[in-house]
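Worked example 3. Consider a protein that binds copper (II) ion.
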Amino acid sequence: MTDLIERPTTSTPDEGGPSSVDHGHHDDHGEHHGPSGILKWLTSTDHKVIGINYTVTSIVMMVIGGAFAEVIRAQLVSPTSTLVTLQQYNQLFTMHGSVMIYLFVGPFAFAGLANYLVPLQVGAPDMAFPRLNALSYWLYLTGSLTMILGFFVSGGPAAFGWVGYAPLTSAINAPGAGADLWIGALMLTGFSAIFSGVNLIATIFYLRAPGMTLFRMPIFTWNMLVTGILILLAFPVLTAGLIMLYCDRHFGTHIFEVQGGGVPLLWQHIFWFWGHPEVYILALPFFGMVTEIIPVFSKKPLFGYKGMVFATLTIAALSLGVWAHHMFTTGAVLLPFFSIMSLLIAVPTGIKIFNWIGTMWGGKLHFSTAMLMAIGFVATFLIGGITGIYLASPPLDFFTHDTYFVIAHFHSVVMALTMGAFAGIYFWFPKITGKMLHEGWGKWQFWTLFIGTQVFTLPGYLVGLHGMPRRMAVYPNNPSWQTLNQWESVGALLIGISTLLFVVNVVASYRKPIVAGDNPWDASALEWFTSSPPPHHNFTSLPPIRSERPVWDYNHPDAPALGHGHHEPAATAAEKVEA
Amino acid sequence: MKPAQQRRSRRRAILLALSAPLILAGCQLPSFGAYGGVSKAGTDTFKLWQGFSVAAVIIGGFTFLLMIYVIVRYRAKKKDTSLPKQTQYNIPLEILYTIVPILVVIGLFAATVVVENKVVANPTPQATINVTAFQWGWKFTYPGHKAYIVGQTTQTPTMVMPADQDVRINLRSADVVHGFYVPRFNFSRYAQPGLLNVFTFNITKPGLYKGQCAQLCGLYHSLMYFNVRVLPTDEYDAWMAKQDANTSIVNAAAQSGAVAAQISPRVPTNRAQSQGAN
Amino acid sequence: MMKQESVILLFLGIFFGLMAGVYWFWGHEDGGGVMLVGALFLGLLPGLYYFWWYRRSGGNRPEDRDDATIADGAGVVDSFPSTSIWPFVLGMGCFTMVLALVFGTWLAVPGVALILSALIGATAESRRGGTV
Ligand code: HEM
Ligand SMILES: [Cu+2]
Ligand SMILES: [Cu+2]
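Given these inputs, the predicted complex is written out as structure tokens:
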């Protein structure tokens, strides 16, 4: 069944009548009298439904991955703990890393909120390929199930780390179904990601509203465009690598095995050629969310919009040339090349941080939970970014690689991303559900999450410098590491508590709903022009698009002129009445 | 210190100071949590670490202070609903914070290259040790000598090496990827199957150092320890002479090899063995 | 207009090409070189396509004009499926195929069946929708 969708033609909400007219050939279609209940869930191709499915599933994955992390941290409280066996420990961190990276941050970022928001932000009725979009979700869901299935087969799940370095992944070193399920899960979620990327790019290229030129797109949409491009560049490489790995395991090829003339190192090249762009595939969407949120709660436009766009593109360009900074200690890569490329990425990243601060500068800051989470993101990301600069220097990487210094570094980053995720949730929850999340609970959640993160990561840097390698189930030789490890575990506990507070908040928001209204934050992108939640096919009317803040222009016709004049003026009064 | 040496180290200091302008006097700086390094290259690495840390503290500290200032200064007053000035661009400022980071990065990169070249240099060795990592232990042999040290999880092997000499390590793996990591040397390197990894230590401080496998290699990864005993040159020579004089094929330490053989049949153990000088 | 869109992709592709060149002659490592050349093409391919599309349509789409009004975009956007079961069926088919990789080839039989029925179903659905 298909709906023919017309564009809205008015710019005044609630007056022009329904302009998204259904000209379909059947009368009984559309959400209003479509299937309901489970069938609706199974058959919907609405980007909003799919976006919610993605978001909820990925948060469930975060809780599962977080539970593994808590067990890991409980094990490490003592040097000779026997809470889990060595094998179980290896499985736990493998599954923790895999679930978090493949099943939580990525899908949440480029397919959860993005799915929901990108069509709204560009004024489109849906994603460009709605059925492909639905397929993405089903591949992601089944991929997640495949990964978790590892716990229920004999031998348990994969135990070779989330990076699966050959030849530890070979049929001899990792027999059993768990490893194959890991490969299968990555194939499914990999294709799911590729389809999401295709959809994002096509939607942004073909379905923008009139007047929405590329350089008027909300910065979140810009970030999603670049993310989509990176997905298309990176994920096919991983999928190819996985197919080779499967052939090695089952069809007797020796691509990654020395015995038959293969090259184990090749796996690392392939994996990180995907893996480093993946870092930015994970991060860019959250950069985008934070960049949407900070201006709104500063009551200002984004400072340095164009600089932000070019920084994002620069990051994308460089991110394909840094993969072997994960391989400095192999002794077989071109150190200076990867070192300078990695260091250079700090420049556009720094520009972003200064632009965020510049946005707040001279503003009127309102510290809602979303804003706190966004600031927490910037602060934590700054720590992760600075420690990342050390790792870009091969001599410094030589002695921090594979230690808790690295664990702490990338947890500063991913915990920052997690804060970005919650910033996005607090910010867009009203749009998606029509209800506000409770600010009181939210602030408690923020502070436990923020403090917990620092208590968890900062001792990690130190214990790493003291020589503690990662992936240690026990450390009987070095009892002196215990105190710092216990602090880390305290931090992990706080993070766990913060997640519980979030669940409480969501439940509370449904039991005692606070109605949100169309635009509770006085925000500026198009999604805030339509109702909360938006109708099927999104818009009944659109405002004129004359800057990157169409809804703001519409709501603040008398706002002070933009600083630094050479910029196109906001919509003039004359334009506003034109339709 | 001899004058020539002094001059050289001063030149090095100047170079570092030029490339990372923030390094004022490498030695008086705090350690920023890292080990000083007991090898020549390790000490250089440590100084680089200090330089990076100074830059990190200054840049990071500046940025954090800026954030805190903004957060405190621009908090919206209650009931103030007026809009602030809608500043959107400040091109000179934006150019400034593009150029300055680029300059800092170039400085950090220059310092990196200087140190990196020292760390990865392989001068003609005065002693050579072949190291083989296997699941889950280490084997140390000395080309041209009989010394043969092997041990695994239940019996930590100890590599013996001379101080103040360029000691070349030939690192190999018998099975999967392992990581040869001695924290006090400020260095680690993968034992990568199919690859020979060659690097050089010049240890300036004799002593017993802990080492450990750093790269996940399977079940007993967390127990894959080894030690490094660095002996003054004369003691090392004496030790080596004793090993070479040892004619018995199977000595007391063979048991450790036998256990290793059970775990990893790929490691040959039917040879003369000796445990390290513990 | 589509020009900016294609320029972004072409810029990225060319940048990867430059990197591939530097890496190839400096790094002497084939794997990365090949993958960078792949990235070059992955940038150029869609970039050139969009450039061609821009030249062919020659048009000024309302979304590419600074001064376009909402009314300029009036008319049908496109036809969108409202609901469809086939993505789910196709997803289950792919899932079954992956399980076949792990638990036994026999699972490929239901897997292929599901995939085929989804392909046929989705195609028929599009046909019936008519205007696509
Ligand atoms: C509650 C918060 C978290 C805690 C307490 C936590 C804890 C840990 C610990 C202790 C390790 C090291 C295990 C080891 O090497 O022995 C680890 C590894 C890892 N974590 Fe987390 N983590 C948390 C959140 C996250 C998030 C949000 C992500 C990603 C988005 C993530 C991704 C990873 C990855 C990729 C690894 C590496 C796994 C491997 O070595 O193969 N973690 N985590
Ligand atoms: Cu990376
Ligand atoms: Cu190991």
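Take a moment to read the result before moving on. The first strand of chain B starts at residue 127 and ends at 134. Strands of chain B lie at 127-134, 137-141, 148-152, 158-162, 167-173, 178-182, 187-191, 197-201, 207-213, 225-231.
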